[in-house]
Amino acid sequence: MSKQFDVIVIGAGPGGYIAAIRAAQLGKNVACIDAWSTTAGTPAPGGTCTNVGCIPSKALLQSSEHFEHAKLHFADHGIRTGEVAMDVSKMIARKDAIVKQNNDGILYLFKKNKVTFFHGTASFVKAVDGGYEIKVAGKAEETLVGAQIVVATGSNARALPGLPFDEDKVLSNDGALRVGATPKKLALIGAGVIGLEMGSVWRRLGAEVTVLEGAPAFLSAVDEQIAKEAKKSFDKQGLKIELGVKIGNVDTSGAGVKLEYTNAKGEAQVLEADKLVVSIGRVPNTNGLNAEAVGLQLDERGAIVVDGDCKTNLPGVWAVGDVVRGPMLAHKAEEEGVAVAERIAGQHGHVNFATIPWVIYTSPEIAWVGRTEQQLKADGVKYKAGSFPFLANGRARALGDTTGMVKFLADAETDEILGVHMVGPMVSELISEAVVAMEFKASSEDIARICHAHPSLSEATKEAALAVDKRTLNF
Ligand code: FAD
Ligand code: NAI
Questions:
Q1: Is 454 an annotated catalytic residue?
Q2: What does UniProt give as GO cellular component (predicted)?
Q3: Domain range 158-279, CATH architecture
Q4: What is the DSSP string of 199-233?
Q5: ipTM for the assembly
Q6: Any idea which ligand is nearest the CA of 280?
């Protein structure tokens, strides 16, 4: 006998579990199916983000940052320690415990909101009436029928052609988050978000880290001035980043990994490392969905094709998050999940792609919203720019971290904020003010006239807004 639901959500990552909760809040009878298991075989909802993405990576970034501070910066504060040592297995165990708290938290939220959770792999099957049902293959087999189906099956790490992940020497994000001891030498391919975050973790813990990047420019999606400032810091820290490389043969037959590549000058190079992380982007995941059998349309990248409202080509089937177009970010997936649940309930769901913030949680952190200076130039938009360095911010001095700046880009005529770009301490938190401002179509003058607490890092935001009109007060 099939079980009937108003809404069936496939995948309990940030896109899926949030869609399920919002639909339940709106009075729908909701099922959510997720395949992820703990090593003990129990459910581990939360998707990539909770299990092998956002949350565990930030846990390791925090631990490794504490370690580096204890080693390098405590003495500046007059704190004397003995020898500072790192117990990597304890750090990994702490990270695992945080992941488990998040898994359990989502199961609790499902109960609280009366979402029925199924642990298993969901696939579309053709029903006798010509429609489709959802089969769940888990401990027990179930067949579910839903008026509306939301696909939120996420993404997987992209492997280099001919070099599958073995998660021992050739690691995806999954393996990179559970290395048992600090490798002496770590190589990473791809100086994108994962390459920089994971490279930072293991460098701070003492690995000699080399990141090989195919593109000639560093972080080309980031405002050039900000990317340059960040690169300067990474160079100083000893995070070796080589741009414009072409990866050749990768030999894993020895004790470690031997990597042949040509550098930007076209010279043949060999890099030997104990482990290699491949972080060259992610591919949408529709594995096991049986999408073809029901005619669910995919694009050439394997992403589910959706319209602006996240509707697929099949009636009553929606898709959100990493499995569709747009940035592969947890908060984008969540916003789409909420919007789809609200549309299903007859409301007006809304996602503003122009104000989705990006954050790279390195040290210094990098954060931005809106268009970069190079994009504005390419779009032929007349703009004014203003920036303020953390060097001139009292709170940053007290923190002992004066790296970086806040930069505003505003329309030359109307003064509307077009982009805000930051590199420096805690900018992951500071960027929210810029997101709110842009969502409300604020001008740089609006921010410049708002009272900001002193001493706070957020004063750098106000000062950068003042700088647009060339009237910074503290620089
Ligand atoms: P996912 O989180 O991938 O969830 C999909 C779920 O669907 C999974 O649980 C999967 O098991 C399940 N599933 C798949 N197929 C089926 C099926 N057929 N049946 C049942 N279940 C199925 N983003 C940020 O915004 N901030 C960050 O700091 C950040 N850090 C990251 C760090 C790393 C190392 C990585 C890899 C990613 C990071 N991301 C970050 C990206 C973020 O994790 C993703 O954008 C986000 O998880 C996408 O959410 P989703 O719900 O679309 O998919
Ligand atoms: P990415 O797209 O951020 O970076 C991939 C990098 O690899 C690019 O710089 C690209 O030029 C390079 N590259 C691609 N092919 C290559 C090749 N053959 N040789 C050398 N270099 C090559 O992808 P990444 O780092 O894998 O992360 C995937 C996604 O996960 C991110 O785009 C982001 O959406 C999400 N993520 C978000 C985080 C955050 O919000 N803080 C943290 C980590 C991941």
A1: yes
A2: cytoplasm
A3: 3-Layer(bba) Sandwich (3.50)
A4: HHHHHHTT-EEEEE-SSSSSSTTS-HHHHHHHHHH
A5: 0.99
A6: 2
